Amino acid sequence: MSETNFQKELKFVADVVSALSSRMGQSRLSVITFSDDATMSIPLTMYQSTPEFINKVLNLPWNGGNTYTDQALEMMYKQFDSFRQSGRRSVGVVITDGGSTNPFRTTSVVRKVKERGITMFAIGVGMSINKRELQMIASEPVNLHEFMVDDLDGLNMLRSTLVSRLCPGTTKTPSIICSSEPADIFFIVDKSSSLQSQLNFDKELQFIARVLDNLVIGTGPDDSRAGLISFSTNATLEFGLPTYRTNDEVRNALLALPFTTGDTYTHKAFNIMLNEFANTARRDPRVRKIGFIVTDGQSTDPNSLRASIARLKQTDIEMYAVGAGTFNSEELKMMASKPTNVFKVDELDDLRTISVELNLKKCKVA
Hints:
This protein is α/β, with parallel strands linked by helices. About 35% of the residues lie in helices and about 20% in strands. It has helices at about 5-20, 50-60, 70-85, 105-115, 130-135, 140-145, 155-165, 200-210, 245-255, 265-280, 300-310, 330-335, and strands at about 30-35, 40-45, 90-95, 120-125, 145-150, 175-180, 185-190, 225-230, 235-240, 290-295, 320-325, 340-345, 360-365. Strands 9-8-7-10-11-12 form a six-stranded mixed β-sheet, with helices on both faces. α11 links the parallel β10 (about 290-295) and β11. The chain is elongated, with a radius of gyration of 22 Å.
């Protein structure tokens, strides 16, 4: 997240507090920021002046870093423990644009939060959100406590809905309904020898799983479908577009994929994808065709890859290319449909920092 986007988050918090000011009574407010660490930016205090609190919010510094959601949630519940009073509600609102860096510990901390009866609202921004994690953080019923918007500018649409749910029984406000446009998407994953281990291969798979969380997989005309192709010395169609019918089925099959070894014959994976799109893609013009490759090296046969890319350019397939490690930048540019569809990181661990916008998710006021 950039400093500009961080300021948009702070502005949203300030606007919500301003809208709540006439209803808060003797409420106490706090702000915790998190990246590599969690910081008690504003302790839980009874502010007599809303402008004073808002001024403090708008002047909080941006740090950058990873997404240690678990540390922020732990700091929150410990603060509530210190100030707990009978009859007073404890409410937390998490705003995040990515999945937790330590998802296993986040799961453990969320369990402690729920045990304390803290009402949690979870707001996800952008396409790199872990939908499953967001639902885990949100209180029941999840549909009233979880929100997703395409980008930080979309938070403006959410303000009145959040205010009404933070203070129920006041006024009825519109709801934000988000859906996903239909797409047929093939993920192409590199499992050549340069990855060295199943652990490193799993980092690729987990990254793809986070992208998958932003799709709505199903069998209806408005749902998306996903297939998976792996490649090293040979390329393999691991599963096709019609094979799995839910997000969970696709995710489970993806994360169970074993690591092999071999060279990097990228063009073989492209040829399978092109044939599969030709034979199994839906003919409905509303359904977008998307290819999404993750690789940690350059092609063993660049001439054959160029020939496959030439075939690709004759189709309506949108191509995204992600390189991690010793990739060939020129090959990534050739593979991607446009420069903004190219993503690069120095090592596999940095894949968790990438925010990929497939622009399939649409939200409207209802």
